[in-house]
Hints:
Elements: E1 3-7, E2 13-15, E3 21-23, H1 28-40, E4 44-49, H2 64-67, H3 70-82, H4 84-88, E5 91-92, E6 103-106, H5 120-131, E7 135-138, E8 162-163, H6 168-174, H7 184-191, E9 194-195, E10 205-208, E11 211-214, H8 220-233
Parallel strand pairs: 1-4, 1-6, 4-5, 6-7, 8-9
Antiparallel strand pairs: 2-3, 10-11
Helix pairs in contact: 1-3, 1-8
Amino acid sequence: MANILMVVSAADSLTMRDGSKHPTGYWAEELVVSHQTLTKAGHTVHIATPGGAKPTVDEVSLAPDYAGGQDRADGFRAYLAEIDAELSAPLVLADAKLTGYDAIVMPGGHGPMADLFKDADLGKLLTEANAQGKIIAPFCHGPAGLLSAVDGDGTFAFVGRRVTVFSNEEELGGGTGENTPWFVEDVLKDKGAVVENGAAWSSHVVRDGNLITGQNPQSSEDVAQEVLKALTDAK
């Protein structure tokens, strides 16, 4: 069975275009579904955050209208309570070593736009993982974390790689709207990634070798399943 490092944002707010603070964190469905799917398959998941801080769930993601109904919202809350000990004592991202891990998974929520996109420790891990062909799987806003992977000259490690990410259409139509401080889709394109998005609010996964990306919360299960397939293929 594989060991998986799940890197989660430690941010609890995002500074918006107008300077206001928008409460945020990780998106419940994305963390829950990926963690649950990977562990049910028998794999070990270790959670890591910047500074080893307990990550904050975006409360909006636990509202029935956003979670897909009251039953799903209740299920997400119950699972988060079940793994609270893990969430309360995550690994310190700066201390995490790639040795022993087969994959890095990064769920979203707007949190990665506040911290992971510029986290040098994450950047080193991703650069090393990519060089070794290890699985890297960010989804929704998680691909913002890929932006941390630059060398000393500022060259982006994923230039020319095919990815998908929470689209501008989704951000403007159901995310943080016009007040969004920056758009992950645009910046990934600017840095040289090849963004291939699907229809808004529908599951869409892109795999480019060891890099597996998902577009939105609806992609959570399919990303996890693609990671499982990649782990099997790597045996």
